[in-house]
Amino acid sequence: DAGVTQSPTHLIKTRGQHVTLRCSPISGHKSVSWYQQVLGQGPQFIFQYYEKEERGRGNFPDRFSARQFPNYSSELNVNALLLGDSALYLCASSLAGLIRFQETQYFGPGTRLLVL
Amino acid sequence: AQSVTQLDSHVSVSEGTPVLLRCNYSSSYSPSLFWYVQHPNKGLQLLLKYTSAATLVKGINGFEAEFKKSETSFHLTKPSAHMSDAAEYFCVVRLNDYKLSFGAGTTVTVRA
User: Which backbone phi and psi does A100 adopt, to 5 degrees?
Assistant: First the structure.
């Protein structure tokens, strides 16, 4: 079975531009979470979506937005890019996103974004 | 607020010797704790998780971790390091129903 897939693998943008990152969850998983991992740090939670609804958001500005489609794939959008947005963006999928019920989140390989 | 602190940013061991990665947590109640591993250019992989069952948790690839409430620790160990264990390791705590909080990570290098 295919794992979580993300596209593109690498991306270079300039300040002020907009970027869209894509994620396809494991078949059967209905929840997608997005994390930002700045070089040398642990991943930071951005969003979780379940059944196309935003379930939670981390401490990120409104320039960051996301959506989930009927097939449960997801897009992360970042507007007005800043140099500090350079990071590895990770997508994780799980059955229903409820870690409390001992669900495991499965992570994709990430999209590495460089903002110049 | 719940959080984890990884006490070592970098650990270097010789192949065949034990590995110890230290993690302390802060939580107002019994936490759910995890260890994830990240190999270069690969996604994060779950090594093991503690969810208030047994305090000694066995994971994949020979890793295990022990939950010690009195010490608020969740250290990761492996009896004998292999070259393939060279990676970044993250101690993680569940913040709520759906949100994970990661530590800063420990880089493990394995010397031949």
Answer: -60, -30
Query: Are A60 and A43 contacting, i.e. CB atoms less than 8 angstroms apart?
Result: no
Q: How far is CA A73 from the centre of its chain?
A: 11
Tokens in use for A30? 């209905």
CB atoms A99 and B45 under 8 Å:
no
Q: Could you read off the pLDDT of A33-44 as tens digits, one per residue? A: 999 999 989 999
Closest Cβ opposite residue A99 in set B90, B94, B102: B94
- Under a CB-based contact definition with an 8 Å cutoff, are residues B75 and B50 in contact? no
End-to-end CA, chain A = 37
| Residue recorded with tokens 């250019």 | B41
Q: Could A45 and B100 be called an inter-chain contact, meaning their C-beta atoms sit closer than 8 Å?
A: yes
* Residue of chain A with shortest Cα separation from B43: A109
The amino acid that residue B107 corresponds to is T
Say whether pLDDT at B52 is over 70. Answer: yes
A43 interfacial to chain B (CB closer than 8 Å): yes
B-chain residues within 8 Å CB-CB of A95? none
pLDDT, tens only, A72-92? 999 999 999 999 999 999 999
Do B32 and A100 lie within an 8 Å CB cutoff? yes
* Cβ <8 Å between A3 and B44: no
pLDDT digits (tens, 9 = 90+) for B1-29: 678 999 999 999 999 999 999 999 987 67
Q: Chain B residue with minimal CA distance to A55?
A: B98
Token pair of B50 as six digits: 């503690």
Burial level of A67, CB count in 10 A (0-12/13-18/19+)? middle
